[in-house]
Description:
- The protein is α/β, with parallel strands linked by helices and 250 residues long.
- It has one domain (2-244).
- It has 9 helices and 8 strands.
- It has a 5-stranded mixed beta sheet.
- Helix 8 (194-207) links the parallel strand 6 and strand 7.
- The longest helix has 24 residues, at 22-45.
- The two termini are 18 Å apart.
- The mean pLDDT is 90.
Amino acid sequence: MEKRFREFLVEGGFPEAQGLAPALRIELLQGYVDTVLFRDVIERYDVSQVAALRWLVRHCLRSPAGSFSVHRLHQDLKAQGHGVARDLVHAMLCHLTDAFLLSAVPLATDSERKRNSNPRKVYPADPGLIKPFDASGRANLGHALETAVLNELERRGAEVGYVKTDEGLEVDFLARYPGGGDELVQVCADSSGEATLARELRAFAAAEKEHPHAVRRILVLDRDSTPRVDTPEIRVRPGYEWLLAAPGED
Length: 250
């Protein structure tokens, strides 16, 4: 099960990509992205700045779980020689999320002003889309796991945001379910290190002040990396077990 889960985090869930050689799979998934761009974005919204749009997509897909702001992306595009108006950058990001190529997770806050003024975290629609656009050569399993968890939270109908505490600590996701109930979710491919686990627990403790009734959950890559947590209210399990469980099961 753990072997297949690792393969899923690299290959993704597109049926035609399963079992393909890496080079063929990368070519196929890059073709999928091109198809979405031209059919669902460029033609639909009559986008003329195609080079800027492609740069934006590559930037977002090779930086999964990264925070971004329209202002910073606009500056980066200008530095790359793309003369694109700031409003158009914002519109292109909206087009990409409307086409279900990307998900943009906002700061979890009831203040519309704070939500709009703080960076968002961007994720691909499928973990398999990370590798075809990542030039670093790293496995990137942590970001792929985080992407898979976000996709499942959205599939379960949750309204998802990330938490930034007053102490500057971050919780990956605050999930609010339509039927009621909140969850604070930390995703960590390997939390077996004491320093890593301590950081995750500090973030939970800080976030609990604002979200005292939220379930606290840590999702890891496999059983070997599952830490022992002395706080019984914090639920820890491998990501694949949580993905396969029915919502609400622990």
